[in-house]
Amino acid sequence: MEAKHHEQPKKIGIQNGKISKLFIYAGTSWDEKRCVCAYDRGWSKLPETRAAKAISNEIIAMYN
């Protein structure tokens, strides 16, 4: 998981919040990792799995 958040809310953030980038990966090793959620100033990939949805919701609740 990778995320970038700011001190103050931004228009480019998730729900106009502090997180401007969020990437969640699935896989058991670095070679097998695949992106299951991607936000980079806009959603390019909504959470694909229940786990990715749960993780993204938790990150948004904590840091946005």
Main attributes?
64 residues; alpha+beta; 4-stranded antiparallel beta sheet
3D structure, described in words:
With 64 residues, the protein is of the alpha+beta class. The protein has one domain (2-63). It is 22% helix and 34% strand. The radius of gyration is 12 Å and the shape is elongated. The two termini are 16 Å apart. The relative contact order is 0.24. The model has no long low-confidence stretch (mean pLDDT 94).
Shape: elongated
Strand order, largest beta sheet: 1-2-3-4
Radius of gyration, in Å, reads: 12 Å
Largest sheet: 4 strands, antiparallel
Number of helices: 1
Q: Count the strands?
A: 4
Low-confidence blocks of residues: none
Mean pLDDT: 94
Helix and strand string, N-terminal first? EEEEH
Percent strand: 25-35%
Separation of the first and last Cα atoms: 16 Å
The total tally of domains equals 1
Percent helix among the residues? Answer: 10-25%
**Class derived from helix and strand content:** alpha+beta
Quickly describe the structure.
The chain is α+β, with helices and mostly antiparallel strands and 64 residues long.
SSE layout and pairing:
Blueprint: E1 2-5, E2 19-26, E3 34-40, E4 43-45, H1 50-63
Antiparallel strand pairs: 1-2, 2-3, 3-4
